[in-house]
Fold this protein.
Amino acid sequence: MGLGRFGERTRIHERQGRCRLSGGTPVPCRTYFSILLFMCLLLGICTANDSKPNILLIMADDLGIGDVGCYGNDTLRTPNIDNLAKEGIKLLQHLAAAPLCTPSRAAFLTGRHAFRSGMDATNGYRALQWNGGSGGLPRNETTFAKILQQQGYTTGIIGKWHQGVNCQLRTDHCHHPINHGFDYFYGMPFTLINDCQINKPPEVDAAFRAKLWVYTQVIVLGILTLIIGKLVGLISISWKILMCLSTLSFLFFTSWYSSFGFIRYWNCILMRNYEIIQQPMVLERTATLMLKEAISFIARNKHRPFLLFFSLLHVHIPLVTTKQFLGKSKHGLYGDNVEEMDWMVGKILNAIEQEGLKNTTFIYFTSDHGGHLEAREGHFQLGGSNGIYKGGKGMGGWEGGIRVPGIFRWPGVFPAGQVIDEPTSLMDIYPTVVHLGGGEMPHDRVIDGHNLIPLLQGTVKHSDHHFLFHYCGIHLHAARWHQKNSNKVWKVHYITPNFHPEGAGACYGRGVCPCSGDHVTYHDPPLLFDLSRDPSESIPLSPDTEPFYHTVIERLTEAIVEHQKSVHPVPQQFSMKNIMWKPWLQPCCGTFPFCSCDKEGDNEHNAL
């Protein structure tokens, strides 16, 4: 029990529910342990640092590192996040394991590159597309929530999940947070998309929808040609066959188009545990509801260790912002959304302090990847800023797609106001929180993250990441080498996306950059940068400008060969079979396909 010297001088005798100190008078055991605990606290033997801390993990969605004040932004107001950094530690080289939502979050939850669990693209789709698909975080993956749950923690996730729902039946919930170690879930099993807001341009399967429209026109034209040919006697075909072809085509395309018409009802839903409580979501109320749930979770679990993963929907498009913040920032709707997000973070931090948990709570703030540069509406930018870093969301190699905020606070344990310029990863949170919770790391799989506590406490100067590998889907786009004896950080690029000439670092189109194919450039020899001198990746090095060019390339090549020995085939969660919508897997509140309900009532209108 960690009782120190007092415990060493004590011998407990138990008989018929009575205890006594050596040589003392027997007393009831309950009284004895109360006295023992009181003396322990009086002597200062039982301290907060000896017990398991509460763990609060806050992740923004699509937030650019250049959108936060403490990372250099002087036009957007983020006082709560800035103060968190002032009271804690700020990481300067904190990196997402993937540049897109689903794979980045899978890596965060498991401490492993997403491709190790089949949660990254082999070709085509790069994120889950439907609540009614069968793909998702496999059941054999062990999240940090599952390990902490086994250590007595109450675990909860509030907000975005985007790791799948069902496998074979609408009610099996095989990918659901409850089956991945979370005791409580309140939020969106999918992700925000334009389809969630009325009158926004379509987003889910937009390219496929465009192709489908072309195919529809071709087939209609073909059937009309057959009918005209039949009427004028140029084509010999029975009317019965023509009617069958027309009917089958009509039913096929009507079913597809009707499914797209129901996207808001089928993908944009709010759940509490396994129950659907709002379908479709009322976006204007969602932030208030989730904030209330987070504050409530903290209040009802304040007397025992808890893990809360507050997974924000901000600042993903569509940018739904409450009236309190509309038009208040200097950067339009996106800036309003960022400032509302910071206010929400402040509310959560206030709840921690008001419950007396500030000194016993490990807090972490980050984003799942870089800002979305391609997000636009006409001439208005709807995505964020990645500061001095090139590229953005969807780009697996450039720093702008993967360098994210990383802020930690634990008063009395971590020094305040510290800045650490060492390569770290979102995957490091897994071994870090497992260590804090007293759990044991899985020994039957590769874990790519490292425990950050020694680095955060200052007992070591360098992170354990000698090399880091940056993937786009299953394609290795870049790799970095932290040369610790010289503090150099070298980075090579093997594949880079082609930028739009007028896109300020964005790719072609409105979506996200591809990982391979015609719209990327393959580099042989690879591009080489010294990030310690050129973090913006502006000036590629060559044998003429860098005397160690060949040495660095060779060392990184050796490291990649060794790393890829640990990569093994696994079932692909983004295969066409798993990614496509299946009506028998669609979560539904009410009568399918007309799924609709609102069990929240008007409670969400109450002010916070």
About this structure: The longest helix spans residues 206-232. The domain at 53-192+272-585 is CATH 3.40.720.10 (Alkaline Phosphatase, subunit A).
